[in-house]
Amino acid sequence: MEFENITLTKEIPIATIQLNRPDVLNALNHRLLSELVFCLEQLDSDDSVNCVIITGNEKAFAAGADIKEMAEADTIDMLSRDSFSAWDRIRRIKKPVIAAVSGFALGGGCELAMMCDIIIASETAKFGQPEINIGVMPGAGGTQRLTRAVGKYRAMEMILTGGMMSAGDAAKSGLVNRVFPVELYLEEAKRLARLIASKPPLAVKLAKESVLKSEELSLKDGLEFERKNFYMLFSSEDQKEGMKAFVEKRDPRWKGK
Ligand code: CAA
């Protein structure tokens, strides 16, 4: 697939996908989402890549779904376009994905950041779900993920007023992991990606899967799920190598097997 709306940079073992519609603040049209999903799925099955970053530019991570593309749609159009199926496929990516956010992360842009596993922000980042201002409401997970991230009361205010949250407030609320000056946020996201990429890939995947399950399962079912993944890792060469290397006081050499 030729990419028109994103760029992909591989710095093995990490890869960075940059959303690239700067003229419209990276508004997420159908084509961009298709490219993003295709690219993520390719990277998910690329053994040389262990961690992925999604970023935008200094002014915008993404200012939401493309309003111009949706403006004339009716319910049947929205159903038959089924654009949210792309979002479901992003949710199924097994490798860790970091959002590196600067500027606007609004509507679908905020929802995309929240679908990632870790959010690193620049001091200029602004998060919001402004759909209420254009007669709708979040549709790609905002009411659920924002509420889980920042709690009912803050989420309710943001979603009902359409107001924006600064990077600092987002960090205090638990929506953002860390905030850096704008000239550093992408490099810091890459530093974190390289750190995660240096860990045993199978354990990373199963740990990510287990953390995500905590959003869906009861504590009892979640603990059982976690335990099965933990036991499963004892079939891996990396478990043998990791524990042997500890005993032998040397660095482990991961195989991802
Ligand atoms: N869709 C399409 N185009 C968009 C866009 C969007 N979401 N956001 C910005 N743009 C376009 C603007 O139309 C403008 O294009 P033109 O130069 O051709 O006029 C260009 O990007 C620059 O935008 P502004 O001139 O508005 O820039 P600004 O700095 O004055 O304002 C902003 C920035 C506050 C982010 C403002 O652009 C804005 O409010 N954008 C819309 C945000 C929004 O409502 N997002 C939610 C979309 S719905 C959604 O996401 C549903 C869902 O849950 C999936």
Structural commentary:
The protein is of the alpha/beta class. It has 2 domains: 6-197, 2-enoyl-CoA Hydratase, Chain A, domain 1; 201-248, Lyase 2-enoyl-coa Hydratase, Chain  A, domain 2, CATH 1.10.12.10. The chain contains 12 helices and 10 strands. Strands 1-2-3-5-7-10 form a 6-stranded mixed beta sheet, sandwiched between helices. The chain has a 4-stranded mixed beta sheet with strand order 4-6-8-9. The longest helix is centred in the N-terminal third of the chain and has 15 residues, at 30-44. It is globular and about 65 Å long. The two termini are 29 Å apart. The mean pLDDT is 97.
User: In CATH, what is the class of the largest domain?
Assistant: Alpha Beta
The major β-sheet equals: 6 strands, mixed
Report strand order across the widest sheet. 1-2-3-5-7-10
CATH architecture of the largest domain: Alpha-Beta Complex
The named CATH superfamily of the largest domain: 2-enoyl-CoA Hydratase, Chain A, domain 1
Q: Please report the distance between the alpha carbons of the first and last residues.
A: 29 Å
